[in-house]
Amino acid sequence: MIASSGLMNLAFLGVAVVVSLVGVTILWLVRRKPRSMEAGMRAFTRELEALAPPDATASRPEAHVDNVAPAPIRPVRQRSGGRQTGHPRRGQRSRAGAPVDRDGTPPRRPQE
To answer: Sign of the C-alpha dihedral, residues 100, 102, 104, 108?
Structure first.
């Protein structure tokens, strides 16, 4: 029994190694760079086209950077912490520094 389980383990290991080697060989064949003269010329042409300036007669908007209109200027919203106009809210202080109610009067104190 022990010998047969040891052989099964070795057989499983051998299958795993063979499958791995086949996968690595396929990946290497797919990923390798072609070494022919034509492949080198095609790669050089692709690099030249990538570095070439955009065509002046192209109708693409990104080719005409000088013809871009500026974005409209919009007013900036003021934050709530800025200068207040009108009456302060309840619990806030008046311009004199005293706390005020909604109607601008000092808050009432509860009677004891």
So the answer is: negative
